[in-house]
Automatic annotation (TrEMBL):
This is Glutaminase. The gene is glsA. Substrate binds at S72, N122, E166, N173, Y197, Y249, V267. GO terms for molecular function: glutaminase activity. Its EC number is 3.5.1.2. Keywords: Acetylation, Hydrolase. It is an enzyme of class 3 (hydrolase). Residues 334-402 form the STAS domain. One of its GO terms (biological process) is glutamate biosynthetic process.
Amino acid sequence: MSVPVTTLIDDPIARVLGELHERLRHDYRGEVSASIPTLANADHKLFGLAVCSPDGFVSEAGDVDVEFSVQSISKAFTYALALSDRGREAVHEHVGAEPSGEAFSAISLEEETGRPDNPMINAGALVTCALVGGEDAREKFARIRSLMEAAAGRTLGFDETVYEEEQAASDRNRALAHFMRSAGSLTDEVDPTMEVYLRQCSVLVTTRDLAIMGATLARGGINPVTGDRVFSGEVARHVLTVMATCGMYDYSGEWLLTVGTPAKSGVSGGLITASPGQFGMGLFSPKLDARGNSVRGVAASQDLAERFQLHALTLPGGNLPVVRESEERWPEFGAGVVAIQGDLVFASMRGVLAAMEDVLDSTDRVLVLDLDRVTRVHAVGEKILQGAIDRLHDLEHDVVIVDGARRGIVTGAVEVETLDAARDWLSER
Ligand code: GLN
């Protein structure tokens, strides 16, 4: 597997990333992790930024090719695999979906069920490692690694030294595992679970990999560079949801307020963030703040969120109103035409129904509905439109749908490709 990464001569996003890199590389706040020697000795000057678009175009600045251990960012992908293997209900019998408000290595289990708070902290990730399908630790880890590779679109390295150092420094995580085993939330033995967990932390990624992995989440589970489906759209949504509420440890709430996109950070200074349908982003800089998040990674994300309006809960613009034309009447056929453009989503349907009513008020039982320029149809748009058309049929109205692509957006109505074809159909009737 190798990823062809295209580069425009003058990519405006890369220019912004370059400016940001230049400004923030003088920010020396924070400390590198002291948890294992490899991380303690990391070059704290490293700084990479990469953004991957939904069509697989990567914009980047700084040290985007330097490899580092993925650490806790793997938790998002292990959760994805556990969900794919077992389904949401079975997974969440053993792990919650609530922000812990505590450090990533906290020992806090829900009182009644013994479940750890969520899959993005150590305790929860130990549980999801145990839930991943596979005969033994070797197979489980191989499956997690392949999933990360499919999301990155290339073969990923493994740092044997990091793994050994993690094993040597695993007392607390091991204690967590034993604790959860006794509480019933850890479904596998402690030793193999520790092996899977510490191995997944030791997989090597680059900042560019993280951007593409983020874009895979943003594209509903399809890697935009390779075109491969890595997990289902539903799994992608669950992962992004838990990343949004729990991905930044005890900074998750403030992160959502100031950046507003699902994210996951790791102790090596990596950070992944994504917005559905919009982008995946990878950031890397080893110095961490008190909560264990990359200082420059957080600062860069906040700057970009502001500059590009990335917050996922920003008021969307541009798709309303959707009724392009509702004045046209064809009296010779007793018909009126309503032409729609844009997205058929919850918010646009009121206007569509009102325009249909309007036309039917002043015509004789024939509605020509031009859907040719409809771009996206959400399930809710489809249901409301279908309901309205079924009702018109019950009232003995005729409905002619115009759609050049013949997408079959609604059923039970005559469908033609052009307005002229609609006229022909009506005149021959
Ligand atoms: N290997 C680390 C640990 O389990 C991962 C933690 C992290 O990246 N926050 O402690």
